[in-house]
């Protein structure tokens, strides 16, 4: 008898991590890297930042994406890079 296909919703829930609020120390590291180093860290840099903060790479990437969106909004820039408005 064939096995039932895995439930796609259950798989998604397992793949995503619970939201984590960074500690003050983690925020200092994240903000320093965002403001002084690079708003768009490459995978290697992202891995190093994650290791330094103790957050997962997924959590670190999510933080950078959210922080970039906040920064773009504060600068009056389009929400998506590459978007041009007349």
UniProtKB/TrEMBL annotation:
Localization (cell): Nucleus
First-listed, main subcellular location of the protein, grouped into a coarse class: nucleus
GO cellular component: nucleus
GO biological process: cell differentiation; regulation of transcription by RNA polymerase II
Pfam families documented for this protein: Homeodomain (PF00046)
Domain Homeobox intervals: 13-74
GO molecular function: DNA binding
DNA-binding interval(s): 15-75
PROSITE patterns the record matches: HOMEOBOX_2 (PS50071)
Protein name, as recorded: Homeodomain-only protein
Lineage start: Eukaryota, Metazoa, Chordata, Craniata, Vertebrata
């Amino acid at each position: 008898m064939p096995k039932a296909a895995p439930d796609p919703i259950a798989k998604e829930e397992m793949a995503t991590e619970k939201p984590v609020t960074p500690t003050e120390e983690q925020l200092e590291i994240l903000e320093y890297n965002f403001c002084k180093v690079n708003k768009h860290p490459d995978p290697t840099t992202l891995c190093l930042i994650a290791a330094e903060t103790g957050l997962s790479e997924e959590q670190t990437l999510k933080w950078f994406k959210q922080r970039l969106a906040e920064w773009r909004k504060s600068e009056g820039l389009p929400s998506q890079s590459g978007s041009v408005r007349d």
